[in-house]
Input
Amino acid sequence: MALQLLRKGSSNYPYAVARVAAKRSKLLDASDYEKALQMDVAEITRFVEESAYKAEVDELATKFSGLDLLEAALTVNEERTFEAVRRMLGGEAGSLVNLYLERNHFEDLKTLLRGKAAGASRAELLREMVLENQATYALFAPLLADEVKTLADVLTALGNQSGEARAWAAILAKVPAGSPLPRYEDALDKAYYNRLLLGLDAASAKGADVVREFVRREIDTRNLLNAARWVAARESGDFTPYVVPGGRHLGIADTLTLSKAKDLPAFAEALAATKVADDLKEAADAAAKAGKLGAFQAAVWRAHLKALDRLGHTNPLSLVPILLFLVRKHREVATLRAIARGKAAGLAPDRLKELIV
Output
């Protein structure tokens, strides 16, 4: 399947990297987040309106207000940014970016499953989902219908479609009946990364091996965070179904060892024996002492982005700087959304700081 997905032709690397560099220069920096922490929701909205989000805030101001306006502007801007990057690249590189950005479809489906389980409305789901273009909207439209309420309804709606939707139905149908929702999300994660790695294995373009390194490091981060949350929640049982294969430094056995820690102090001790511990020891020890993961999760993401930055600097004319921009753009939107929601919910400043990556 992956071989059929890879287009031939020019990839336009110099053009795309230059365009993405211009977009990356507009991303918020640490000082901007510090400013946002001192603002209320209306002030944050005005603040981002002065940056890359102006067009979306101005466009949506007649339809939304308050937190709804900010969230809608962030979502629409992210959708448009990803679609613009898709259009920059041709050939095999363009195919690989498309494969990478399929994560938005998988994440949207996970969001929809969680939302349906919580009784979220269609409008609430649309504020959370990253529907990049009309084709993506058409893919999800049947699932957003009010009559689609349960997981069984979602599976039926997926099965009634063709192509990607029917493939999702087949993935979800393999999860044992009665499983908790995270099992379904895990099945989607594994399918996404398997498809992406297969595409990279089939790629002949220069630098595909570096992109594979990028993706494998991302799998490490996901497995590490999932294992930490498992331990923090004092879950028991077999963690194997939740491990995504293909990591760079954390194999399946390493991740399972972390998941078996009885508590966060034991988790910190187990982490110290892994190849990902260097930048995380202090944060893991702090999480063990505090009994909560907030700061540790932010530290994991900072270490991950730092490693990807190094990879991008050593491979400037490749897909890596482009993929790194996509990751950072998503983190920016997620962080701004989390800060605004935290402000609206009255979270303490120290807790809000933990949200910043």
Observations:
- Confidence is low (pLDDT under 50) at residues 1-6.
- The CA atoms of residues 2 and 195 lie 7 Å apart.
- Residues 208-314 form one domain.
